[in-house]
Amino acid sequence: MSRTIDCARALELMQDWLRREVTPAHAAELESHLEACGACRGHAEFESRFRDALERAAERDRCPAETRARLLDALAREREG
Amino acid sequence: MAAVAEFEPQVLPHLDTLYRVGRRLTGESADAEDLVQETLLRAWRGWAGFTAGSNVRAWLLTILRNTFISRWRSRRREGTPVSLDDADPNAILRAVQAEDPGGNFFDRVVDAQVLAAVEALPEEYREAVVLSDLEGLPYAEVAEVLGVPVGTVKSRLFRARRRLQRSLHDHAVELGILKGTP
Lengths: 81, 182
Prior knowledge:
Chain A has 81 residues and is mainly α. Helices cover 79% and strands 0% of the residues of chain A.
């Protein structure tokens, strides 16, 4: 049985929980709070959508092939030199 | 000490990460390329000093950031200065959530706008968000690259996130995705 936490504590734990950087005990406390609290569930959904938007934006952005080729050339020149 | 033959297999898998972080730090693709090139050359020259088995991504990102600070920072336009808004980040959140508590509008903001909002952050917030939220580095690795305690990383991320949420919210209002509260 996990300890009951309030909304302020739930918000403190939420970011670490969303990143899976939370201890199992804290995760259990937060999850049991989320089951009982609609406001914090909504907040978790909000933060999670926001994280997804950031991750999506980052994934789309890769080093272009021409840039990669120029970088490898520069590195090869340095290694030979 | 790291073996010469290990340089490329260890370093090149992180090229996309270096490029993306460079792009967000400098704000320009040409500058990002120069920054990554300088980073790779410095990494090659310093490779003998890299401890085999330690975190090569954090090591490379630290070189990239130091290179950025010494060569680029002074030239880059600064983001909006830290303002009074930061005094109550939760007030920002309440305003942003007022109309769309579940944050559905985040799904409708285009990637380019998200990246532009990140680039407009003050540097101290921007680098934390880029490493943590965009690249997915764990707190400890972000702290290592930035040379600050984990608690500082968390507090910068907290404030940076509120600013970004507000900026994306305002953008959604401009686009008519949200009505905006008068």
